[in-house]
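Blackboard transcription, Thursday session:
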Amino acid sequence: MYKGWKTTASLLVASTLLLSACSTETEETATPVDLKNSSSEVTLASDMSKNPEAAKKRNDTFIAGMSSPQGVFNPYFYHNGWDGNVTSVLFGSLVDVDKSGKYIPSLAEKWVLSDNQLTYTFTLKKGLKFSDGSPLTADDVAFTLTMLHDKTYDGETDVSQVQIKGGQDYKEGKATSISGIEVIDPLNIKITTEKVNALSLQILGGPVLSKAYYGKNYSPGNLDHLRTLHGAPVGAGPYKLEKYIPGQEVRTKANEHYFAGKPAIENFIYKVTTSDTNLQLFQTGETDYDGFTANPDNFEQLKSLGFANINVMTSSAYSYLDVNHKRHLKDKNVRQALMYGIDRKQIVDATFRGYGEVANEPISPISWAFTPDINPYDFNQQKAKELLDAAGWKAGADGIREKDGQKLKLTLLTRKGNDALITIAKQNLQDIGIVLEVEVMDFNAMLDKMEKGDYDLSSVSTPGMVDPAESAQNFLSTIADNGYNNPAIDQLILQGQSTLDIDKRKPIYQKLFKELNEDVPSIFLWYRKSMTAHNGRIQGLEPNAYTGIIGDLPKLKIQ
Amino acid sequence: MAIYVLRRVLNMIPILIGVSVIIFFVFAMTPGDFVDSNQKLTPERQAELRALYGLDKPVLERYFIWMGNVLQGDFGYSMQHQIPVTSLLNQYLWNSFMIAVATLFLTWTIALFIGVFSAVRQHSWFDALVTLGVFATMSFPSFFLGLLLIKFFAVDLHWLPVGGMISTGSQTTGWAYVWEVAKHMILPVIVLTVLGVGSLTRYFRTNMLDVIRQDFVRTARAKGLKEKVVVYKHALRNALLPAITLLAFELPGLFAGAIITEKIFNWPGVGQIHMQALEIRDYPVLMGLTMLLSMLTIVGNLLADIMYGVADPRVRIK
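(Written on the board underneath:)
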């Protein structure tokens, strides 16, 4: 299962490649980007005769660009989202995500949830095999989940969120196996959890590691052998690793044991590219697919190539200003005043030049949980001033608002490259009597300051998100470390997590997001768009926000 | 001489220890750590991971653990690549080295010739043109020059590849492989040479001009030696002496990687690894690479002194 990125360093670059939207082929020809119709646009190749020789000659190989794989090709150990992409190709998972972010069976034939929503029974497809030809059975699933509970497991998958029965005992060494994991027969496995959690399925239905291969020499507390295998993965994905050349390429070959049949394209290669020259590589036919910085110049250039199919998609993430609720901004009126008082539309237009839109709720418009029925907080400084007055912040002699002898000064933490946000927000806030002090720093330094509570606002983005619960839980008072605490919101969040039925969850989330829009726990900024292009000779590729190109990979063809 | 060298080598030990203390603490004091970079982790899991990585221990203790391992030849595991730091550096270091050596050779050869010629013909047309050219190339930003060359030679003319070290998916071996890598090296080496040759040319020219005015050159001329012998035997040799120091100082540069140029040409060099390690706070890699470069700097320094002594009897230490 595609699990989003693991490191934030790759976050910004990654967004161009991984985030996208449900692709509906709306137009045959290019149109200017239409902000009203936000989810996705496809521009098809207009003149395939312009396709460069280099690409035409390559009739059994698909080359996709990516930023920086690091060679940790194990879905539970990588620290870098690019390695995550590679593992998605090499490892099949029980459950996958479709283009609208809903769970669908993959290696699993089906899964059944007990009435109390605590017990999951997975049934595997018949005849599954790993890329080395060995059978994939329920034992392998059990091994994978057990390994995640090992006390020396230091990867970033947090299996404790699922609360499998007996998992903690195993971790602490009190038991030699996990009582909640029960292999019924080679095709069926039952997992008993102790808490209803909508996110559990993502973890339980994740990639499967071979017990025979990865579990060799395994004893609790000893993952040493497994760690030596990061460079020689064995999985059940559509492709298997042929060769990794550090800093250059990840070469894979079609897996003849893949459950849905061997993919038609024999070779799939991830080539390391950078945003400086990925357009040139694409233009000369050295790559077939890449993600590009979404802006009008790149779009025009790609269009003029003639052989490019261009996808412009809204990301599944959103950007916001994290709010420190322990200082001036604990007052809802002040937070709302910021929403009204900052011209977010102008910031978005200046930053993305048509390839972004204003966010007003903490969920992407491509999610099934998105609700359009909310306050858009259109730029209105008069309203902002009224809200500040109501909150008791009155303009002082120098025009700066004060209350109880304190001036209304806010500190904003941000990374480099947020020029529009800094300049426009500073000016806007000055106009309504607020001083904004900006500190520019690198990401880890920013997180450190946030942890210490030494800030008022901090400009961040979420990673790509599949389930609305991932976004919602950040506002839970037990998880939010910025001091946000709203019992009514807490209750809605827990309610949304406590069932897996989308029809039941939808109204809960719509209500939740409406209330969050009203309560403004953070200053919502924007959804950005990403732009990808692929060579027109690759047939059947419709990149989307949740699975990137990986969902389509097994069924691609080269014309 | 042997004792002098030995003393200098022993001297390196306290210097390296001092350097390691400074670097370790500076990195440790940089806000945020490796675990911070993943936003998706819960605070409990973050604490667990810090304990597993040993990041929860006091900085001083971490330093001694690290130092203890290094003394046993263990530079630790890269946190993000999950392989030993030495293997990681081995994967990338030599790629940077290849480019750097080719660049060094070209830069020095070109700079030497041009510098000497323009010194001998000071105030000539040639000299004026060289001076102009030198300042022009020095002021080029590397990314601009790189992108310009890519546009001309790769995109428009298709003579050379856009970037990378080999053609994607290439199966070549032996000489075909060497040729392929060489073709990919051409553009990055040109960029780095053009950028580096300017200042070095000025350096040789100035040295040469200094020497040419000295008394022993005049004596040589007075003896009736041919101008060629005066310039290339007497003057040039002396003018090259200070260059020895400069050359030895290039040693760490051979392994440091050229971050911007490597990035533009997708060259799998060590510069990228260094930057990434810094961003993600991959302490073992940061420490390993920085220590290697410090050591090379110190060794380069030592080599400079020794070579100077060999070349110039006047400064030889008894």
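Lecturer's comment: DSSP finds 18 helices and 24 strands in chain A.
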